[in-house]
Each structure stands twice: as structure tokens, then as C-alpha cells.
Amino acid sequence: MGKDKIMEHNTRVEQIKTYLERLSAGEELEKVRADFAKEFKAVDPAEIMQAEQELLQGGTPLETVQKLCDVHAALFRGATSEEKVANAEKAVAASVKEKKLAALTGITGHPLQTFTHENEVLENVIRECRNEIEKTNTLSPERFGKLREVAIHYAKKGDLLYPHLKVKYGISGPSDVMWTTDDEIRDELAALAKDMRQNALAKQLPVQKTEDHWLERFRIVLQRVEDMIYKEANIFFPNCALNFTEEEWFGIYRDSKDYPVCFGVENATWEAAEKYLHTENCSKDVRNGEIIMPGGHLTVAQLTAMLNTIPMEITFVDEDNINRFFNEGPKDFKRPGMAIDREVFSCHPPKVEQQVRHIIGEFRKGTLDKVPIWMEKNGKTMLVTYMAVRDAAGTYLGTMELVQDMGFAKEHFLSDVKAKEAALRAGMED
């Protein structure tokens, strides 16, 4: 961007800030909108976000900016560059952001496609809610429950998109403003759900004022949900599309699988992401002195210390029945270093060897996944747990043995029993 373009951009941002400040001061939306329309034929989503961000940096309280979030949507509705282009051309986007967004939402299984489909279903749910209220002056718990699935949509945004846009790309407006609005919407829906249960709003209430008040609150939050759809489609998602790399989208795709299905929109398979993630998992395990794992990366020192900190004796035996790992520290079941790379059965006396062979054999066949054994050893109550270790495909990789001193649990429950016995005796004496 040339110097002149930068100056023009900054000037426009300053102008936008004045409109937001006027709204903050309590000026009527329609008057501000009329003045805005005189000065701007179109506004770029990035300009809106920068204006909000600069207001926050300039000392405007977050609560103030956040409260304006809903009216921002009304002020700029129909004025973003993306909408102007869409209205003019109906199909082909002229802006970089919209082209990028359109390209990504067209990819089967891409997170932005999933988010967009969720919003499309959500719009239908909103219409159904309004139609039902208009016809019956009430709302069924089923339809209300469907709307509350928006919490899943917001949770995914909050975990996967907002923080990344803020931390990686320095775009904090959505995280600081829209995220708070999401939370307020969820909280209000939760409060309405509580009131619905308490007041049995699905039935005809004898006190009409109570029901009317609930419905008015619901109409307000419903509008906020609708406005958020607009802001996502025209401001937030375009900025994510423009900034996030393909590898970052691959990671978001992977992480999104951990969330429940929202509005019946299943996560479609993104072939490119699946191929990348498979290759990544099969690539070098060590990079820059760190061990790379699907859940993160650790140095050998960090991993060793973490495993040694876990209050258990940990043993891992591989798929070939070879001892591969013992964590360090004092042990009730001694694990000599010389046993590493030896067959596990050689470490057990004959009287228990057959039992160990049987357990591992069942793990290998897939008929067992876990065997807990309680015992007393050296005056201690011990829990020894054998667990089958399998990969994501269910392939047997080995067996893990966990030995835990359960003295703390025994002491806890015994003290509880003693307390109850003491209370009983005291009651009998009385």
C-alpha cells in the first residue's frame, strides 16, 4: 500500500471512529447513519475492525465498545465493500477478502464452509422462532432448544478463531468485542431457558405479563443472534480468510472435530487437510531439539520431568513384548535399567508369567483394554493397572503398566467412616 493510500485509509478509519463515538454518546442511530451515508459509499471490514481496535487502545472502555457491537451491524449493514460488490455483480466478488472467503467456503469440509452452513441453518431456525411467536404468542421448548445450539457455534469461534486472529495477526477487535457479545447471548439464552422451565412458558401461563416479558427478552436476543450472523459473514470471516494460512486452517479443521455437531451440520471430510495431517503425523518426530506430537511439542527434558512428576510408576512394553520405558524415581516394584530392551516376561516370576502372557494376549486380540489389580505390598494398598495402548486406528502398539499407591484414598475413606461412626456414637449417647 502506497503512502497516499495509507493516509487515505487512516483518514477513513478516523472518520468511522467519529461515528462510533457519536453512537457511544447516545446519538440516535438513524441520524448517525444518514451522515455516514453522505460520506461513505462503501466501507471495508478491516476499517471497521481497526476503528474499534483504536477506540479500545485510546482508552474507550471495552464495555462501551462491546455495547455498540449490535448497533455497529445496523450502522454498516449494506455498506461494506463485500455487500456492495455482491449487490452489483451478484456472483463474482471484486474484493480480495470476498474472493478469498468465497474460495474457502467452496472447499468441501473447510471450517469456513462448515461455519457458513451452520449460519444458514441458524437463519432458518430464527425465522421459525419468529413465525411461531407471531402465530401463537409462545415458543416451544424444542425450537428454543434448537436455537441454543448456537452455543456450540460460538464455542468453536471462541476457541479456534478469535484467539488466533488476535495473537498471530494482532487483530484484537473481534476477540475483545464480538467474543463478549457471544458470551452475553449464550448467558441470556441460558437465563431464558431457566425461566422457561420455572414458569412453564410452553403452557398457557395464567399471568400473561410474565410471558410477554419473556418473549420480549427473547426477541431482543434473537435480533442479536441475527446481527452476529451478519458480522461473521461480512466482517469476521473475510478477515480470517484473508489472514490465516492453509496450514492454520488444517489445524482448525483438526481441532473442530472435538466439538459436537451444531444444527445438524456434520463436519465433511476435507481431503487436503486429511492428507496433510496424516503426513504431519508420520513426519520426523524430532524438530529443533523437540519431540513433535499431535498434542504439542516438548523437549526431552520437559517430557522426562513430566513423566517423572506423575505420581505413578509407569512402564511401557511395546507390541513385541519388549520393555521400552520406565519412569524414574522411588519404586515399590523395582525396575532395573538392565531390563530395558528385554522381553517383559523375563521380568516376572514363573507363578505370574502366565497371567501376564494372558493379559497381553487379550490386549493384542482386542478382547480386553484394561485390567486393574488391587494388592497389598510392603504394608501399602496398591492399584496396578494394565492398559492396552492403541493408535487412532485401533492398532495395538503395546501395554502400559501403572502402579499407584492408594494409601491416600484408603486414608480418606477410613477417616470418613470413622467420622460417621463417631457421629453415630454421639447420637446414641444423646
Descriptive terms for the model:
8 strands, extended, Four Helix Bundle (Hemerythrin (Met), subunit A), alpha+beta, 62% helix, 430 residues, 2 domains
Describe this structure in words.
A hairpin with a 2-residue loop joins strand 6 and strand 7. The protein starts with a helix and ends with a helix. It has 2 domains: 3-270, Four Helix Bundle (Hemerythrin (Met), subunit A), CATH 1.20.120; 302-411, PAS domain (Beta-Lactamase, 2-Layer Sandwich), CATH 3.30.450.20. The radius of gyration is 30 Å and the shape is extended. The protein has a 5-stranded antiparallel beta sheet with strand order 5-4-8-7-6, sandwiched between helices. By secondary structure, it is an alpha+beta fold. It has 17 helices and 8 strands.
Strand content: 5-15%
**Strand segment count:** 8
Percentage of residues in helical conformation? 55-70%
Q: What is the H/E order?
A: HHHHHHHHHHHHHHEEEHEEHEEEH
Query: Can you tell me the CATH superfamily of the largest domain?
Result: nmb1532 protein domain like
Concise description?
The protein is α+β, with helices and mostly antiparallel strands and 430 residues long. It has two domains: 3-270, Four Helix Bundle (Hemerythrin (Met), subunit A) (Up-down Bundle); 302-411, Beta-Lactamase, CATH 3.30.450.
